[in-house]
Amino acid sequence: MLIASALGVAATWVLITVVLIGLGSVLLKLFEIDLSLIDAFWMGLAVSIAILEIWNLLLPVTGSATALLFCFGILGWITNRSVLWNRLSLGLRTSR
After folding, report:
1. Taking the model in full, what pTM does it have?
2. Quick check: 96 pLDDT over 70?
């Protein structure tokens, strides 16, 4: 049971990382800034915090806010898939 819980937590962190990278890639591409995974992650984190802060002023933060951020993150991966996959594969090859 402990291993299943640990795998669940690890899977959640991977999903959150993927969504934040997708979110950040949308904004970096919008401003025509060179796309790196680290920059996309931190930009995605900043954007998600800003969206949640504004959302909290208007409505309570519920699952719909999470769904909105998830959709924007997946949209970022879809629109920038070639660049993101190239950066990801380059990072995996150089880390070995």
Report:
1. 0.87
2. no
